[in-house]
Design brief:
mainly alpha, 64% helix, Serine Threonine Protein Phosphatase 5, Tetratricopeptide repeat, single chain
Length: 161
């Protein structure tokens, strides 16, 4: 009796599989026959802004501009580079994270730290300021404001000399 029921279910499953295999998954549309001249693919727009050649977003232009998962991964990799001491690579990754998720404050804070470490004080001030614009009630807001004040004083001293 048990064998008969098992055989019945196996035959039923095989029948369903064969039925589904015979169905077309999607009909393909025929190619337009309007002209014999081949159609050129649309040209990509070139941006006026020059980007770094090693930027992840430039190397993969097919990636969407808004990609929160990529932003998180860029943050993670940027922090790794900071721990290893490769500040330039960290800056690139943090900049990519700001592009992938522009309204996200965290990459701007890390970008400011990396720029400050490299000695790019004006850029660090801009990154820290953007962080505070996006996240005005940040827990570390007072600390960041002090960093901004310190960096501004240092840049003003440099102008006097």
């Amino acid at each position: 009796m048990q064998r008969k029921a098992l055989l019945h279910w196996m035959l039923l499953a095989a029948g369903i599989i064969l039925f589904l295999a015979g169905l077309p998954l999607r009909a393909q549309e025929p190619a337009p026959e309007s002209s014999s001249k081949p159609v050129d693919p649309p040209a990509r727009k070139k941006s006026d802004k020059k980007q770094k050649p090693d930027s992840a977003t430039q190397n993969a232009p097919d990636q969407p501009a808004w990609d929160p998962l990529r932003a998180e991964k860029d943050l993670e990799v940027g922090q790794y580079y900071m721990r290893k001491g490769d500040v330039d690579a960290a800056i690139d990754r943090f900049q990519d994270a700001t592009t992938a998720k522009p309204g996200y404050a965290v990459p701007f804070r890390y970008l400011g730290e990396a720029q400050e470490k490299k000695g790019l004080k004006k850029q660090a001030i801009a990154s820290y300021s953007r962080y505070l614009e996006l996240y005005p009630h940040a827990e570390d807001g007072d600390k960041i404001r002090k960093k901004i004040d310190k960096l501004r004083k240092e840049t003003e001293k440099k102008k006097k000399y």
